[in-house]
Amino acid sequence: MLITQQTKSNEAIAILGSTLKAERAKLQEVRTGITFDHEEFKASISSQNSKLQEDLAMEKPIIDNSKEEELDEKELKRRKAREAELDENQRIVPKDEAMEKAEREAQKYEPVILYLKLMIISYIQEMGNMDVEIATMLRRKPSAVPKEAPEGFEKLKLRKFCKES
Prior knowledge:
Layout: H1 2-138, H2 155-164
């Protein structure tokens, strides 16, 4: 009985060994297939990568040229804007200088203009007063109404100033 058990266990071990060898052979085939597939995959990735690198190398000068063109266009736009600004400044500065000169001249003659305005007001008042006096003498209705001097206007000082000058 011992011999039969040993034989049976030897047979079982032999069957198990052959099964393991068969499984190992299958796993080896699978491993070889996976390795082969992996190598093919690496080769295809490498070829695609090299092709993309070549395409990129060919496109890079085009991209660089377009960037240079864009920079040139930007630079041209900046230059045009700067030239326009300079032209505008050259046009505005003489106008500003002329306005400042006119203001200085006006300030120079401001007292004269004020004096002339006061003289005109005084003349209008005198004409109104004369019309009233003439109308009174001729016994008619005056055509002009005498006007009062504006506030701050001193008739006597103006007459004094007129006599002195």
